[in-house]
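look at this fold:
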Amino acid sequence: MNRIAGFLRRTFGIVREHVGTDHLGNKYYVIPEQKTWTGRIVRAKRIVVAANPTEYEYMEGNIPLAWDAWIRGRRKEPPSIEELQKNESYMEQIKMKAREVEERDMALQAKEYEEGLVATPKTLAKGHAAAISYGKEEISKDPTSTANTFQPGSWMPNAKK
């Protein structure tokens, strides 16, 4: 089989071997290490043919993590179907636990607000927290005028303190 694949590679170009398909329909291939007609060795490559090939429709998470690790060479063997199902169920459990913790936290927070243990949050902050004038409401000493009443040279800067 290896001789036939080598012949096909030399005759028709690159031959890729199908390794697997994920639940989203993405197909994964490996192009084995090969020699060119000049004798140069071309390294093995791993590629994915996306089920949704247009770039603007790609979203993070369209390639499962186990397959992403295989594509990037962080693991030697492609993931098995059992492993992918196990990872999927584990991620669902984590999401459910995170939802439960968030609901408990919201209930505890509401209880603390009712009992007066914690002040209710007031989000009236304007500006950026790193700014010098953050949270200060000062009247500006800079002149304010309209175009109708402004006279050039009428404003004088304040004396330095």
Notes: Residues 52 and 59 are 10 Å apart (CA to CA). The chain has a mean pLDDT of 78. The longest strand covers residues 17-21. The chain has three helices and five strands.
